[in-house]
Amino acid sequence: MKLRELAERLQCRLEGESGGNVEILRVAGIEHAAPGDLTFVANPKYYGQLATTRASAAIVGDAMPDRARPPATCALLRAADPYSAWARAIALLVTPARPPRGVDRLAAIAPDATLGADVSIGPLVVVESGASIGARTVIHPHVVIGRGARVGEDCVLYAHVSIRERVVVGNRVIVQDGAVVGSDGFGFAKQPDGTHLKIPQHADVVIEDDVEIGANTTIDRPAVGETRIRAGTKIDNLVQIAHGVTIGQRVVLASQVGIAGSTVVEDDVVMAGQVGVGGHLRVGRGVVAAGKTGITKSVGPGEFVTGYPGIPNREWRKASVVFRHLPSLKKRIEELERRVTDLVEKLAEWRTPTGR
């Protein structure tokens, strides 16, 4: 694709008119780029590498200062949001391999399953009775679609994904390798003799449109009610979402987040890696939880929480400063206690008749 055409399609401002007719063939990181490659810089600390890159063009932010301009051999595509422009450029320049349309002869499809137009179903896929798969959906090898499950249009399910019985998956959903949607929730009733009676988990799981679910993530079904992931939410690898949880729209959950049962996470929440959320809580709209935060009580809208138990980030930063000084503070307190004890003893001696 010509650079000028690429700039138009990305809605970027092209700087370096002589480079408008350059053919852009690939995308590459700034250190490894070669002629014909497009690279990008979003972080100011990498501006200096623009002077040495061999890329034909680079996507940069509108705010990049002129002093950071690369040599004339590297054209610039100015973007208000360079990271998003880079994502769109990859989509334009990289064509992912799509499996052939149709059903592989080694797939096992129930006679009453429904397959939409132009689906791609790989070898050793199992689609059980009453299940349906929407048009243009791609099912990679070893995927299992349970009885009565519904998978929408334009979805991609990678190898070893399990969509359990009656789970509903919307349109344009991506499920990465090894994820399990609709596994039994962790529900047991302790008996007088100390054993644990399993509570059957037979209720619904609904994944709405444009959700992405990371590799080896698990989303559990409840005994009653439903577990629901709302539209546009993005879930990283190794995330656990327990039974009866509701996740709002456009939520972002990074790796190893764990959310306990019956909790509600409202729209636009961001949870960094290894955040843990207790059960039966509500996390308000727009909350941001820093990595390793433990949320043990409900959090109001728009808060930024950190630490365990999670507290407002500003308070946590102040507390963390104090924490680093605790050993020296302990010594000072012990010294003050010793001095106070000495003063009390001297005062007691002074007050006695013999002390006067």
Domain module count: 3
Strand order of the largest sheet: 6-9-12-15-18-23-26-29-32-35-37-38
Q: Treating each run of at least 4 consecutive H or I residues as one helix, how many helices?
A: 4
Strand share of the residues? 25-35%
Q: Quick one: CATH class of the largest domain?
A: Mainly Beta
Sheet with the most strands?
12 strands, mixed
Radius of gyration, CA atoms, in whole angstroms: 29 Å
Ranges with pLDDT <50 over ≥5 residues? Answer: none
Structural class: alpha/beta
CATH arch. level architecture of the largest domain: 3 Solenoid
* The CATH H-level homologous superfamily of the largest domain: Hexapeptide repeat proteins
In round numbers, the mean pLDDT is: 92
Euclidean distance between termini CA atoms: 100 Å
Which fold does the CATH topology of the largest domain refer to? UDP N-Acetylglucosamine Acyltransferase, domain 1
Strand segment tally? 38
> How would you sum up the global shape?
flat
